[in-house]
Automatic annotation (TrEMBL):
UniProt-annotated stretches for the region Disordered: 341-474
Classification via InterPro entries: 6-PGluconate_DH-like_C_sf (IPR008927), 6PGD_dom2 (IPR013328), KPA_reductase (IPR013752), KPR-Related (IPR051402), KPR_N (IPR013332), NAD(P)-bd_dom_sf (IPR036291)
Gene Ontology CC, one term: cytoplasm
Name by which UniProt lists this protein: 2-dehydropantoate 2-reductase
Taxonomic superkingdom: Bacteria
Protein source organism: Streptomyces antimycoticus
Length: 474
């Protein structure tokens, strides 16, 4: 008589999109009882009929899992993997909270910084932090495209020591791949915020991520530099993952080291099955709001408190919002503009303590000037500003004269000169973009009761499309 096999712990995956579906598949294949909860009825029905399918290398493999919509779910939640879009976190927690066992916990397998919200709603003891970088896509109802290797790090919130539950969870997730435990998940999340900002910027155009990052290195370096300036101010120790090394992308990094880091990153991206970001896919394929504004809310908030301007990050987020419902306006010219915004003042044009700003003969400069070694910091109460080339009139010189670089608020281009018009309100550079209205927490489907679905599945591409779409995103 054979010995009875030990019963493996069960998991509930809330949001069976790209990330949630990938991990649900791996756990179920390893023998764990898995229930996936998703608002997309077509996706759920396909999983019930064929099992959860993962496609890789021209082959497809299916495993049976329990699939349900939120309204149909019954029972108590114990181990929850939360994999909904970041902006849907609050709505998902409304559903989870009354069902979560006292000794249960929720793991945030999402983009952005969501652990603090989960801890506020459920308690720190029922919150587990995670960093995930998995390249996958939902390509049709019930089918996940495996996008290649990735990274997964689990830990206690706020840098607590690795606990038994974290070790157990990591051991179970080895069914997916090289999951690891860490007491510095925060360092990974901030590193991914920099890496993710580059991927978000590539969604402004319709071209492969690796090519756009390679062609627009000045913008990408300045963009990550803004984010890492905030993490440095907060004392975060950044962690490397996959082919991304954060240190060469901090401000003041050695140019040769940064160039080599760009080379390694773009070479690695070119090996991935997916060549476009999840944000690009949301805009171009699913035609739904992007989650980038939610990802970077915490970055904007910390930057504002610390008096650190974030003009490039603001420009990226604003540009993505302008493209919601207008993907035809994607253009690489948007990244060209980021390159221009990233350029520092020309060294020969900077004012020095011994040389006043150049104005037309007889004019007296009134603009603030700066030395190459000590650029001024804008007052916290003043509108966010950036360093841009100026006209003489803006610096207090006579109209038509020319001058050096001065500290001033950028001039918004006229509507006629913009690539396309937008209804988005102007927001000062460095400030969080305005909140949009609309179906932010719905996948566009309804539950059996006729109510809007309460969340969209999967942070790296989750809502299934009704027909196969090209693979492309994180």
């Amino acid at each position: 008589m054979k010995d009875a096999q030990p019963v493996r712990p069960g998991y509930t995956v809330v949001g069976a999109g790209a990330i949630g579906g990938t991990l649900a598949f791996a756990l179920a294949r390893a023998g764990h009882p898995v229930t996936v909860v998703d608002t997309d009825r077509t996706h759920v029905d396909a999983i019930r009929t064929r099992g959860l399918v993962v496609a890789r290398g021209g082959t497809r493999e299916s495993v049976p899992v329990t699939a349900t919509t939120p309204d149909e779910f019954t029972g108590t939640l114990h181990r929850v993997l939360l994999a909904v879009k970041a902006q849907a976190t609050g709505t998902a927690l409304d559903w989870i909270a009354p069902r979560l066992a006292p000794d249960g916990y929720v793991v945030s397998l999402q983009n952005g910084f969501n652990e603090s919200l989960i801890a506020q709603r459920l308690g720190a003891a029922r919150t587990v932090a995670a960093f995930v970088n998995i390249f996958a896509d939902v390509i049709e109802p019930g089918v996940i495209l495996d996008g290649g290797d990735g990274a997964l790090v689990i830990g206690e919130p706020d840098g607590g020591p690795v606990s038994p539950r974290v070790r157990d969870l990591v051991a179970h997730l080895h069914s997916w791949g090289p999951a690891v435990a860490s007491d510095n998940v925060e360092g990974y999340l901030w590193a991914k915020a920099g890496f993710g900002a580059m991927l978000a910027a590539t969604a402004l155009a319709d071209a492969p991520m690796a090519d756009l990052i390679d062609r627009h290195r000045p913008a990408m370096a300045a963009l990550t530099g803004e984010i890492f300036a905030v993490s440095d101010r907060l004392g975060v120790t950044l962690e490397a993952f996959d082919a991304f090394e954060p240190q060469p992308f901090r401000r003041g990094a050695d140019p040769a080291a940064q160039a080599a880091a760009f080379d390694r990153l773009t070479a690695w991206l070119r090996t991935q099955t997916k060549d476009r970001s999840g944000i690009w896919r949301d805009l171009a394929v699913r035609h739904r709001p992007v989650e980038a504004p939610t990802h970077y809310t915490e970055v904007f908030d910390h930057a504002a408190r610390e008096g650190l301007p974030t003009p490039l990050l603001h420009t990226v987020v604003t540009g993505l919002r302008q493209l919601e419902g207008a993907a035809q306006n994607m253009s690489e010219s948007r990244l060209d503009e980021l390159d221009r915004l990233a350029q520092p003042p020309h060294p020969r044009s900077r004012s020095t303590p011994n040389r006043p700003t150049r104005c037309a003969s007889g004019s007296t400069p009134t603009a603030r000037t700066w030395s190459p070694t000590s650029p001024p910091t804008p007052p916290r109460a003043a509108p966010a500003t950036t360093w841009t080339p100026w006209t003489a009139a803006s610096a207090g010189c006579a109209t038509g004269s020319t001058g050096a670089w001065a500290h001033r608020t950028p001039r918004r281009p006229s509507r006629a000169s913009r690539p396309e018009t937008s209804s988005s309100a102007a927001t000062p550079l460095g400030a969080p973009p305005p909140t949009t209205t609309g179906p932010s927490f719905s996948s566009g489907t309804t539950t059996p009761s006729g109510r809007p679905a309460p969340w969209t599945p999967g942070p790296s591409g989750g809502t299934a499309t009704t027909s196969p779409a090209p693979a492309s995103s994180t």
